[in-house]
Amino acid sequence: MSSEQTFFATAAHGLEKLLAAELTAMGAAEVVEEMGGVHFNGPLKLALRACLWSRLASRILMPIAEFAADNSDQLYAQVVQLDWRQHLDKGRTLAVDAHVAQSNPTIRALPCCASKMRWSISCATPAAGARISLPNRLICA
Fold first, then answer.
1. Where are the beta strands (DSSP E) in the chain?
2. Full 3-state SS string of 110-131
3. What's the pTM value of the predicted model, to 2 decimals?
4. 87-116 burial string, b = 16+ CB within 10 Å, else e?
5. Which domains does the chain have, with CATH numbers?
6. Is the per-residue pLDDT at 65 higher than 90?
7. What is the pLDDT of residues 94-133, one digit of tens each?
8. Residue 139 above 60 pLDDT?
9. d(Cα 22, Cα 24) in Å, to the nearest integer?
10. Which residue from 66, 97, 113, 120 has the least number of CB within 10 angstroms?
């Protein structure tokens, strides 16, 4: 499996530039620093290698969707359209990290965001026969 994918390597604040250099040396492409980590492209094998050998990355995340939502109803509509059966099996959990680009009190409120994400994913997967267990600590920043 050598197809290119997008990843995000998390790092402690202030280490982004060093992490970008480390990932570039490992063969990552389109490396872009952001506060708290580095976006990069590469095959899954590169992400696994970075997860194992990076001295600076805390985690390597693989985004499964990116979309704009101006309110919680739009958030629900976008999340429910995703094919969650590709990512969830019975008894598995899923961590959700949302990034809110602009201040929006409706979505930015953690309880609202967490509740809407749980509800959306649960509604999107009833036929899968899997009970979705999502952590209470969902991140909406």
1. 5-10, 29-34, 37-42, 59-61, 97-98, 139-140
2. HHHHHHHHHHHHHHHCHHHCCC
3. 0.69
4. ebeeeeebebebeeeeeeeebeeeebbbeb
5. 5-61 (3.30.70.940), 72-140 (no CATH)
6. no
7. 666 655 555 556 565 555 666 667 667 766 665 555 555 5
8. no
9. 5
10. 66
Q: Which amino acid is at 74?
A: Q
- Paired strand residues for 38: 9, 33
**Cβ partners under 8 Å of residue 37, min gap 6:** 8, 9, 10, 11, 16, 19, 57
- Residue 75: its H or E element: helix 72-81
Q: Determine the residue type at 102.
A: Q
Return left, alpha or beta for 32; rule: phi > 0 is left, psi -120 to 50 is alpha, else beta: beta
Range of weakest confidence among 14-18, 44-48, 65-69, 122-126: 122-126
Q: How do residues 1-37 score in pLDDT, each as one tens digit?
A: 468 999 999 999 999 999 999 999 999 999 999 999 9
Joined together, the tokens standing for residue 55 give 């001295």
pLDDT of residue 136: 47
